[in-house]
Structure formats: C-alpha cells, structure tokens
Amino acid sequence: MNYDYLFTKNDTVCYRILSEFNVRTDFTITKSDLGDIFDLTYYQFHKYFDQINTDLAAVSKGTPCYIDDAPNSSWKAFGLNTFTLQKIALVYLNRSPFMMALEYQFFYDTLHTKREFITANYLSSSVFYRALESLERTLKKHHFYQPSSLFSDREFTIRLHLFQLYYTMYNSVSEPFESINDLITEVIQQIYHVLPVEVGPTSETKLSTFLRIWLLRIFNQHEITDAALAQIKLDDRGKQLFESLKTLFADQITLSSTEFNYLYNFLISQGYLGSKIQNQTASSFPSVVQLSKQFMDGILHENVLVDTKLMNTDKLWSRLLQIHLQFTTFYIEPTTFINPNQMKFFSDLYPTFDIAIRKMIGSLQQRTDLHLTSDMAVNLYFSYMFALINSIPPELMKDQVHICVDFSEGSLYTDYVIQSLDSFNHAHLIIDKVVKPETDIYISDFHSPKVKQPQIIWQDPPTAPDWAELADTILATKHAKLIEFYPNAQPFWGGDSSDEK
Cα(first)–Cα(last) distance of the chain, in Å? Predict the structure, then answer.
C-alpha cells in the first residue's frame, strides 16, 4: 500500500521523483521526462533538485547519495537504492502534519487533550488543527476504513490498516513508538516462551510492530469487539501466555479474553505457533475452507496432472489453508512480490499452473467482499505459484519436459551435466537415460542422425550462452505442450492494471 498521500505536497513530489529514479537501471531521467511526468516549472526544477539533495544528505551514511544535474539536460542519481528510499519515505512521513494528526486521533485522543498533545510535541497549533480537520476526509478518500479482509468490524479494520502503515513505513529503518520499547521487549519474551521454533529478524519486526499498534489502541480505550474474530479454544500454550500477559499488564490494563483472542489469532495466522495449529484454526473458518476447496478443485479438474490419484493432496491443501487464512484475516497489503512483469518468468516455466491460478484469481476479482487490488492479485499469484511448485512433483505434470543427456566422454561428464540441470529443476524436467518416444530434447557433444528430437550440442563445457539456448528450447517445448493441452490459452497473465477491483 502506498502511503505517500500522508506526505506534504512538496515531499510527495520529491518522493515520487526518487521512486522514478529507483526503477530505472541507469538511474537517469531527462528533464523533459520529469517535466511531462510531474508537470514541473523552471522554478520547481531547482526547488526539488535542492530539496532532494538536502534530504539524501541527511539520510545517507558512508557512501554519498545525491542527484546530479548532468550536462545532457538530465538528472542522474548516485548511491540511490531501495533502503535509502525507505529512509527518505520515513523522513517525509514523520515531518508531515498529517502524521501527527493521525497519531493523535488513533493513539492519544482519549489520553490527552489537543492542547496537551500540541505542547508536548512542539507543534504549530494552526497547522495541527488544519491537518486534524482534513485527516478524516483524506483517509476515507484512500479507503482507510474499507475492510481489506472478510472481517468488517471497524476496529479490526483500523488496527489492520494502522499495522500496514507502520510496518510498511518503519520496517528495517527504525522502531515506531520508542517510548514503549521496554514493554514490547517484555511482551515478545513472554511470547517466545511458548513458540515452537525460533523467529527470524523479519518475523520479529512484524510481531513487534503488531504489538505496538495492539497495545496503544487498548491504552487509548479502543478495544476489539467480541464478534470481530471467532473465539479460539486455547491450548496449554495459549493458556500459559494469556496468564503471563495478564500479569505483565496488570498495572496498566486488564487484558480481556477477547483482546487475547485477537492476539492469538494473529500469532496463529502468521505461522508463529507452527503449521499444525495454523491448519487446525484455518479449518474452522468456513471462508478459508471454501477458497481452498475452490482452488484445489480447479487444479484437480484443470487437466494439468498425469494422474490426479497419484497426487499428495494433503501437502497442497495445508499450504492453501495457510494462504487463505492470512488472506482473509490479518492480510498485510504487500509491498514486495507485486511486480506483474516478474510473473512472466513463472508463466513461461509453469504455463499450466499459470492457467489454473489466473482462473482462480479472476473469480476472486469478481467478489465485492474481497476488495482485491492489483497488487494483492499479483502477490496472491506468487503465493499460489510457490504453493504448487513446492507441492506437486514434476513427474505428475503433463507439461513435463523429458531431456536425454548422452555424452561421448562417458558417465562422468554425462552425470555432471545432469547435476547441472538441477538448476532447471523448477521447469518440471525429467531426465531420460536413453532416448525414448517421450524424450523432448537431446543433449550431447555430437549430433546424432538417429535422433529426431531437437538436439543441443555442447562440445566443450557449457557456457552461459549454451545454457541460455537450452533454456529457450525448454520454454519453446513447454509452449508447444501448452498449445496442445489448451489451444486457446494465453501463456502470460500480466495482471489487472487498476488499483482497485
């Protein structure tokens, strides 16, 4: 989700200019393009150029980061990367009057008067009041109160979108609400006591951000309703954690079973408590089961498998439950795996999977209760694709590619090439020891007139162009198989260009 609508007008333009640099391989933009994209005047060119360089100097440490006014009427960025762009975005967010107004409205409005908040944060009264007055209108314009899950509870939606905002903007840069750092550390330690596995840095950051939003909303007297989420029957770990957190919070709040259920649902849906309880919980949500069954039925009836009876459906079913549990509950609006151009790689290698996936996503886009944006659709595409790749072996796929490797040097070199082909194991390759009727590609160091299939000839250890030639031949073979199975199929889906369903 893009939150630059919370920046000031000038900072929004600066951020979008920097974002434009960051998607160009040469980090160069002509002034003509800048003028067309951002409708800049001569005065604005100089203003934004100076402002951007001042901001970059403030956040870049070690390696200098700046934009240069090149002699060929263009701007070129040096030292700019995604992390620097994240740091710039956070600078712009934190100096925005909208952000101060947002924090007051959602985290402190029952704890402090406006005057107390203004004084404590050294704010301009007029600027703060103007921002507070227009904040609600701005949030509604950008669908802040529109549910992005199947749960329409207003408090659930507010918390989820606040979590998305802070997780997106602060992730890997700094911690929000540092005044409660010590409390968050204690809470995380209590949670870690009941987790079955260790947690990586990314998962810890996610948990820390979620806990900050959760506690600050409770402190500000905005509690979740009983009907927001299904009540989970607590296991021994859940009971232990509930009691330890009630004791920890005793001097500040009375932790209700409803609020703990909200926290426990989050821990389960995000996989912190392991896949077993995650799947058990997912199976208790009718919507999760329905979506998973719909996808499974599509795969089993889409004519992509040699024999559906040979498939281990439990593995795929487990992954689908996990995907749909997150998607329908604590779904985090994605900022990565959202580039539709990257889908072509998977569409080429797994054309039959691609067909089944886009049929599923097409049906989801027709549902008004899911609010599926284009970024969400692309992110879901990757989730489905990875679930299929990791659950269905190549031997079961109809679009598998049979390759016979046969070198005159004997088994040592032949085995070396076969081992090297493991790098293509995501292409549903089957290695044939001899040429068979089903063999699609023949690899050798000499051309054989007895072989009718396409031949790849490597008389020396293969170079990068040799591997590229093989990859092209594999893709051509898969495309031919796709046309055979699905004569009217388009091999690549580029996603929906709209921002909203």
Answer: 15
